Prior knowledge:
The protein folds into 2 domains: 11-78, Orthogonal Bundle (Arc Repressor Mutant, subunit A); 85-221, Four Helix Bundle (Hemerythrin (Met), subunit A), CATH 1.20.120.
Amino acid sequence: xxxxxxxxxPLREEPASARAYRALERMIVTLELPPGSVATxxxxxxRLGLGRTPVREAIQRLAWEGLVDVRPRAGLGIAxxxxxxxxxxxxxxxxxxxxxxxxxxxxxxxxxxALFRDAALAMQKAVVTGNVIAFLEAxxxxxxxxxxxxxxxxxxxxxAPLQTHSRRFWxxxxxxxxxxxxAAGHLGIIRAVTEGDVEGAGAAMGSLMDLLRxxxxxxxxx
Length: 222
């Protein structure tokens, strides 16, 4: 699911630092910047076509989220990816995600419900076309809608980095087989939230976390 509460703002209207962050986050999640590899600030500036200041701000944010290790005079280390850590990420997410889902169902507005429906449509299209990248974008879109609807910025900010780490694990280990199951879990959450079903939203989120944890446990056993 997605972490940026401004996902409904057109990309071209975002500050350059936000665009840099989105682009670099996507490159890390989809392993275009491979786990454990080393990049340089200059090379990323060239790839993104953005200025030094916004790229540097994006790197600082990614470093705080644990996705980049800034090494003075030695480049930028892209966080390694260890399958056994996926369970830890899911366990850390669970409580905050349930709080967000229940709060979103309690406080959802017509405007926020429209964001959820847009995310659901994008997710369904991604499943039909088998487009994993589009699914990840829809997942991020859903996280943004949840952050807006829940009216709980503390929980949203707490869980946002974990959502990014989780998408990265999912892309590495499950994206080739788990698209439909993951979509079904997310759509159940959207349905409960937009219907104002507080208990149902919490239960649906718990079920999604159970699914993801089962995926993570399977990776540990492999």
